[in-house]
Amino acid sequence: MDLYATENAAMKTCISDSALADHIKSALHQNSQLNDSDIHISVDEGWVSLDGRVGRETDRRVVQSCVEDILGVFGITNNLTFSRQLSKKPVSVS
C-alpha cells in the first residue's frame, strides 16, 4: 500500500461523504478558469461521481485533476461532457 492509499484510508474515517462533496465543490468554485455551474458531484464512501457539462475537454481534465488531488478521494467516475456554449467565469481586470 502506498502513502497516498494509506492517507486516504485514514481519511475515510475522518471525513463524511457530504463534507468531502462540499470540499470538492469549494475547490472547483475557487478555480477562476472553470464555470462550475453545471457540475454535479456525488460521493459514496470516498468515490466521487462527476456529472454535468463543462465548456471544453480541457476543463473536464482540469476538474478531474483537481478532484484527484483532494485528500479523502478514493476514485472518480468522470461523466462530464463538454459544450462550447458554456463559457469561463468572467474575469475582471483592474
UniProtKB/TrEMBL annotation:
Residue ranges of domain BON in the record: 16-84
Annotated coiled-coil segments of the chain: none
Superkingdom as given in the UniProt entry: Bacteria
Entries under Gene3D superfamilies matching the protein: 3.30.1340.30
PANTHER family: BON DOMAIN-CONTAINING PROTEIN
Annotated protein name in UniProt: BON domain-containing protein
Native organism: Dyadobacter luticola
